[in-house]
## 1
Amino acid sequence: MSRENDGWIKTTCAYCGVGCGVEARPKLSGELEIRGDKSHPSNYGKLCTKGIALGDTIITDGRLLTPTLNPNDQPQALDWSSATTLIADKFSQAIRDYGSDSVAFYVSGQLLTEDYYVANKLMKGFIGSANIDSNSRLCMASSVVGHKRAFGSDTVPVCYEDLELADMVVLVGSNLAWCHPVLFQRLRAAKQVNPELNVVVIDPRKTESCDIADQHLGLHSGSDVALFNGLLTYLDQHQHLDHTYIKAHTQGFEQALQAARAQADIAEITGLSHQQLDEFYHAFATQQKVVTLYSQGVNQSSIGSDKVNSIINCHLASGKIGYPGCGPFSVTGQPNAMGGREVGALANTLASHMEFDNPQHHQLISDFWHTDNLATQPGLKAVELFDAMAEGKIKAVWIMATNPMVSLPDSDKIRKAMQTCPFVVVSDCIADTETTRMADLVVPAQGWSEKSGTVTNSERRISRQRRVMPSPGMAKPDWWIISQVASKMGYAQHFNYRHEGEVFAEYARLSTLGNLSGERDFTLIGLTQLDDQGYSRLTPQQWPVVKLQTEIVNQRLLTKGRFYTPDGKANFIATHHKAPHDGTSNRFPLLLNSGRTRDHWHTMSRTGLSARLGEYRTQPYVQIHPNTAAYYGITSNQLVKIHNTQGQSLARAEICAQVLPGQLFMPIHWNNATAKQSKPCALIAPFTDKLSGQPEFKHTAVSIAPYALQSAARFVTRTMVTLDGVEYWARQKIEHGYLYHIESSLPAHQLANLLKQQLHSGYDQLLSVDSGSAGSQQRWVTVCGEQVLQALHVWAQSLPAPVDDLSELLKSPFSDELAGALLALPTVA
Ligand code: SF4
């Protein structure tokens, strides 16, 4: 363990693909101090709000502590031996009865590389099926396809440093300011140093990333291919092609150009003016060093792969690739999405950038793993996997560190799939998620601060994540749990790892198979000699790791115009604009976009534990343009219903000009564990890119209406409560407890009667006050000694919300003065 500098331990942030270095120091009180790691090349000491608040999320509230059978119906605690035997038996039985493709793993970019490696080895190497897919499928699968089609390998050619060296940075479908904040800070700082650095944001929304933009192109949703086909044509028409590069290093240019030339009506399709288009095209063509950085706005599309290749085509055609300050740059969403791609945790690759359709690769891995049962063909991708489950074809599934009930499209179908599957095991560190609610068996995995292993960030930088806290209860590393199950399935000699360093060493050796002369981009040959101490002390390494990097390196790939295709040339791909699947109609005339908000992460199972992070956005919301709001009679902060044939979702209206008229934006984080009826995925149909299998999360036709209810309440409580019988609630973490925001169709006095049942006994004082005017405002407060336990305030919707939000109440010692203030009903705003 790297424990230096007065007990500070170097580790890595749990959240986004920037992969910031963190230093953590446990305190005797059980709390964790956090600061940025100044020596880490991703962030040089900087952290965003989520990284700074990492220490807030290590509380034990809601942790899953024990393997539990039937957790939702007569729960039965198991020891580890019984739990892993049960998993092994259920999987073995299904394989015996229905074949190896009747079982599946659905894994996550939250897993460490060592966890991923062992899961992939078990499923593909020994079970003999490729039915293992990662939730990274939802994040950057289209980029993987785009890279492989163009470069012959899943190669990210650039480094973060290239943002600082560029003349122009184009952000496409990326709200970098919120989704990769420290990278955005680096870009902002680079622009301060070099005001000539031209930043262009291409996004239907005017996001926070536009704060530093010289140009914002608010194009129509889904029109990126048309935009970049137009750029390719412009490069040709204005003599900005790099013919030498095209001739020496690429193929398929003429077909791609022909397809681009056939692209009619670019201004109409994109909704951009000719002047806007010309300005962007001219800047791209004339700046020498251009980085095009893109993420989910490009990838999460039914033509995501073509969007990626339309961008790469422009870089290849102008030779803007393979040297400092230049290149296409797909940034990953999750902390170890890149690690999953390397390990082969996607259903359509083998391991270490080796492929199913290459017999030599198949043989190399079979020999290395000493197996004659290596899967021979790709498995089911995420959406297909849950479709197969719903059709009864999957008899046992293991879901690791992810929450598909919230994150996959068409939530109803996902529920049906999990109900249909005879055996669902979920390993997680959180006890109550929408997915654990569907499990037959839950097993406790370690959380971020307890895990040890490696992660890879968006610039191919491998960093150690180190254990900084002991694990609570019976929580174990994922690689250990999987190895135990593998052993009980009869593969003990192949999974007898003593610690995660041994897994990593094996993985490093695997990366060298048939790769001693750089045949593949990904190699860890320089780490094959690491001993336990070397692994323990490992500093960040950027792959390819040809020799152990003792200093920070910033390596680029594809620098010599050599690609990983059979003939070594890059492929242009002819791309064609196609409208997104879900078109608007009279019934559903609005377009719903979805994405992240600044201070929350995915399904909030961790960020939802931080009072600091909870303050920024307290409830689910939908952004709506003022014209659209006026048309639908929606007022600011009002509860609204967004709906279509898939389902409905409730959120507070945020009226703003960030979105275009006719468009809406909802964050992805709230779900049935943190709110009622506020999940965007309930509205999103499972349309996917046919090559990458990535769902179209950014373009859903919906309608919207005010959701007028009769009464509202705020409920402050030290422990969570169950709220049945109300139409809407959202839970906000506050210091020492939770604040529930509630709305109901019941009259205020009936809502008050309902919620009063949630006031726990055990108090020694009960204060109450009633405005008396037909129960239009009522308040109860329970107190024990010097502590307020719970406080409930109910009011009729005919009154505006009270100013006094009670969120500070649990922090203050109870006093007569406070009692007086609480019993004087607040004036309304
Ligand atoms: Fe963590 Fe990403 Fe923030 Fe860095 S930018 S601190 S990796 S969430």
## 2
Amino acid sequence: MRINKYLADCGVASRRKCDELISQGKVKVNGKVTRELGVDIKPTDVVLFENRVVRPTVRRVYYKLHKPKGYVTTASDEKGRKTVVELMRKVQERVYPIGRLDYDTEGLLILTNDGDITNILTHPKNAVKKTYIATVEGDVTPEDVKKISKGIDIGGYTTQPCSITIKEKDDKFTRVEVIISEGKNHQVKKMFEAVGKTVAFLKRTSIGEIKLGGLARGEYKALTTKEIAYLKSLQK
Ligand code: URA
């Protein structure tokens, strides 16, 4: 990042004023006075203004994304698959997704650079509800619903009680709304597997009161002030 922008991001002064300060010899990079205006600052450089270290204050940003299937939720993938971060091209800050959705799952993902919000949303004590629509192969019976909703063993772990509502059925699939307050790996798929059923398609539609709404697949938008305040209020 160009040195005048770096200094401006540190709250030293406007970019133009920073150019003056640099020319006046008030800025050091890695211990040496720099009067050159075009210097590029790398993340590892230490910048001093009037002999004090300055660091950019990071603007906290919050987005919701409609993750399409065929994307991983990690920032990079050893198999070279597409990542959700690649969908956020126009966002300048380094954002990362809160929690995970499987490669073949779509729906709501929140991305931010605010570690506090990440902790709030992922900490089990806050028990934030996540809503999914699962398209399950075959017929999901009332017995299946009962077994899953009261908590079921998904291989060494018994899930918390949750809400399961059958929304519609046809001759091939049952569409089910699932609301869980935890986030074990592949949890929804495993809960249905535990009653011998296969989830053919999974979509997350909300996280607490944050809704996917009308976002198209691959589309993202900044959370509103109200949505951000809501997320902060979830801390117990
Ligand atoms: N449960 C799953 O099985 N997969 C997801 O991606 C999210 C919840």
